[in-house]
Amino acid sequence: MVDSDVLSRRLLTLAECLSELARPGAADAAALARDPMLRAAVERWLQVAVEACIDIATHVVAAEGWTPAGSARDAFLVLANHGKVSLELAQRLGSAAGLRNVLVHDYVAVDLQRIAHAVEHDVGDLRQFAALVEPWLEE
């Protein structure tokens, strides 16, 4: 059974991160390069936002008793296979999980253009996922 407290807490964290990522300069690679504190904050907010989505996906997969995913990317595909999200969104969220892995494990090679692009164009996928998850609290 899905634990609504687990989902609620992750959704709250996700909302906070998305709000912070809307700050001026967060989607500007030049601003990130000029301001190490802004860069660190944006990288962390992005990492935590994606991690919240991953946590939600893996929790739902486990709670429903579905075959566990082999990776964070695959957790979103499991949700798609069970009709919880579209395949297209699952694939984009899987790419976000890949970016999260770069931020956590390959942090010396972070491409600021990629980060700025993700903030400007891809956080909408995280918002879309949050909107899909909210009704699951009632199930």
Number of helices: 6
CATH topology: Four Helix Bundle (Hemerythrin (Met), subunit A)
Q: Span from first to last CA?
A: 9 Å
| Record field, number of beta strands | 0
Question: CATH-wise, what's the superfamily?
Answer: bsu32300-like
How many discrete domains? Answer: 1
The helix/strand class is mainly alpha
Description:
- The structure is a single chain.
- The protein has 139 residues and is mostly helical.
- The chain is built from six helices and no strands.
- It has helices at 4-21, 29-34, 36-64, 72-81, 87-105, 112-133.
- Helix 3 (36-64) packs across helix 4 (72-81).
- It is elongated and about 45 Å long.
- The model has no long low-confidence stretch (mean pLDDT 94).
Summarize the structure.
The protein is mainly α and 139 residues long.
Q: Which descriptors would you attach to this protein?
A:
139 residues; mainly alpha; Four Helix Bundle (Hemerythrin (Met), subunit A); 6 helices; 75% helix; elongated
